[in-house]
Amino acid sequence: MTSASIGVHASRLADLDLVRRLKDPAFLLLPAIAFLAFIYLLPLIDLIRISLSGPSWSSYFARVFAIPLYWDSLVRTMQISVTVAGLCLLFGYPTALLIHRSRGITQVMIATAIVLPYFIAILIRTYAWMVLLGRNGPVNKLLVSLGILSEPVQLLFNRGTVLLGMTAVLLPLMVLTIYSSVARLDQSLTRAALASGAGPIAAFWRVLLPLTLPGMGAGFLLVFVAAIGFFITPTLLGGPGDQMFAMHITQQADSVTSEGFLQALGVVLLTITLAVVAVAGRFLGFEFIWGGRKLTEAAPIATDRHVADVGRRSFGASLADLIGWPLLRLFGRLPASCGTWTIRLMGGLVIATLILPIIVVMIISFSSASYLTFPPPGFSLRWYEQFFSDSNWMRAFWTSLIVAAMSAGIAITLGASAALGIVRSTIRGKSAIMLLLVSPIIVPPVVLGLSLYSLFLRFDLVGSVFGLAAAHAIGGLPIVVVILSASLQGVDTRLEQAAAVHGASSLTVFRLVTLPAIMPGLAAATFFAFLHSFDELVLTLFLSSAQLKTLPLMLWGDINYRLNPVLAVVSTLEVLLVVAGLVLARPVLATSRKAA
Amino acid sequence: MGEPAALRATRSGDASVRTSPTGRLRERDAIGSSIAVREAVKRYGSFHAVDRISIDVEPGEFITLLGPSGSGKTTLLNLVAGFQSLDSGEILVDGKPVHNVPTHKRGFGMVFQSYALFPNMTVSQNVAFPLRMAGVDRATAERRVAETLEIMRLTEHATKSPSQMSGGQQQRVAIARAIVRRPKVVLMDEPLSALDRRLRESIQIEIRDLHQTIGSTILFVTHDQGEALTMSDRIAVLNAGRIVQIGRPLDIYRHPTDRFVASFVGESNLIEAEILQKRGSTLTMKNRAGYVFSAESRDTIDVGRATVLVRPERIAVSNEPTANSTPVSVTSAIFLGEILRIEAQVEGGEPLLIRCTDMADRPLPAVGDRLHVSWGAADCWVLS
After folding, report:
1. pLDDT tens track for A149-176
2. Candidate from A195, A332, A336 with C-beta closest to B108
3. Considering CB atoms only, which of B113, B159, B163 is closest to A301?
4. Residue environment code for A64-76, b if the CB has 16+ CB neighbours within 10 A, otherwise e
5. Which of these ranges, A9-13, A270-274, A562-566, has the smallest mean pLDDT?
């Protein structure tokens, strides 16, 4: 063999190598990463840069913490968020158990009662509470007719309603997170505890609770992080004394003079959020954010702690001997139905809290009265007529549809490609990439909106349909990536290998095997990405213009301006949209869950 | 499917020991409870998972519920355990009704198919759990856990977490947890089905030995007939929510009451034959191919047709015609190690399954070979 032929051979090998590398699925990650880098990371970095651009780097921050208004608001935000997360945990856990323990059609009904509100816009669910608790609302009417109140009182606009509203809005998140950790447990563990002589309460305390602790932690933190950035609910349900930190950012955003200071406010909120997530991720694994399975092999469970426990006769152990175990045995004497009834009662309360407001709003949309009152004096379709004949509402409706369709298109294209890249490639740092792709979920929307605003100003995108759709796709992308990577992981690679062995090209394999298998996931992801954009309000508040009004924006304006039944009409239509989507997606979700 | 021929060897080997279960019980201290299930019914909608089952389990007995999936065996076990409640009927333990007692007060031990070890506790904490729930103080509990781990040969694993152990070890921990309180009744729900064959066989023996030592009544559920034959004092065969037959393994295997039991337990040839003549307990019968053979029957049938069970290992094979043999042609022959498994067609009759021991002078037949088969009156069992 001559040296020339070796050279040719080598270069051909190099070519092959290059082709192989270009075919690496890791490249599929590039579009999504580029998109996020430009429209998500860059603005956030810019936000931080501006916040540091004062006379000294810390001057804007010094101002934030020097003003009691902001400091108090920060403390209040923490207090409210911790309380809400605690309430969600307290009521969410029994509800998750209720779903887990019920069977058949009952289970489907309960699960739907939890999931349905989860997909309805926060704005609409908050509005429903305003209707429910309003002066002419059913709660006031009921209290008066029972003789508890002599005349209707103002129930709204206080700390209690803020806590109630936020808890109700965030409960589904908690329930679903805990449920997934309960459902993952081997059912026979509880039975084993019972067979070992543990009463229901002891089995719960010694087995179920410790094993679902990570799920509870994840739920608590997810709710807490979401609550920190809350803006819509406290604005609508709170009084002057219930200002949350995110609300200051939107208020300041209206005054142009506060450049730098405004960004510092955003950075403070962002830093707190990221710090909480970082600490949580350290203990729970960052997978808790998207509730997914680890993409890499799970590390073996650390057991050193257990080993240490055995040798040590700690104070805790003797305390357990003295009080804990006897107490658990004592509880074993309680009739087994106690626990069951606690779960049913609390779960029932949660379901009522989630569903009743929606039902009341749907009924009110058919009211014949010209103002909000429940029960309606009569029924008519006048508000539907008004909605469909009002050109402003209709224009907003179409704008929303177009923006949502475009946004879903962007999210599904980038997200599907990224999901393929992350599941099928063998690159290192998958967790970090997944974290980047999913991170927009945890960034407070107010901060994201603020950062995007300056980017949009620079590129003259404010008020453009495409810009708004792209901005909404930032939040749609994580949804798509999470759903599709789960369904891709569910695809049996042996099927693909079987197709390839029998002569299918890689494109044919994708078309005939992979695509049909992930089709349900693809459909669900598209729907949820669409819904995300259709419901989006906070980013839109920053990025729209007088000419470009979406449906949530119109709603927002009207809620602040006048509470009338047209809003109930829009809410009812939204509920129907979500119900239709869920009904269509139900077989899809069922199969994807089976695959996962 | 196990190795019926091999099992048969063991069975007939210690048949003399086993003929009297009550006699055997005297050999150990019978601390187990008696269990009586009376007319138990459990319905799911219109489906009768357990359909009026009655069964009496003697103190200290090892009884196996054997049946295909959906036969109601696991439901019956769950009813005894108290995980599900009876629709009607009753369950008595030592003569006292327990069907309204919650599970945790029944004081049983239980082993699960999935092991169900608490992942948040170490091996010794898992085993200590039933003792702590029973109110045993820490020192006593530790001593008894150590004893039990010793019996199960798990002492060096005491501080491990279940996830660090192999399937076989995990199941031994689960057994340790079930017996640590020395319960009068131990329930086992297909405890070996997640293990590979070798491990399964060794733990089968371990459970048998353990039963001898602790003397608890054991109610064991399995769908594996080999397992049931190896381990049990008695087997209850279930089908469609009812007990079809209950008896010692030997009786179930040799004298099944119907086609279901005959074909579910062990491999079988079920031959339709006409009764030509009856003399004493001996029937003279003729199959469809015209082969005339005699069969022993305890039953009173004397005319008409009957189904005859001939176990594949009871069929004698030779290359030359012998007295009272019938020719068959081989349709498949497989070498299984110590055994040859031959499928053959009786000319003009039904297919036959034959298992014969591998011997030096017996070559593996080829497809199409002609063989001559025969069986004696004692090798047949006439199904009623």
Report:
1. 888 888 888 899 999 999 999 999 999 9
2. A195
3. B163
4. beeeeebeebbeb
5. A9-13
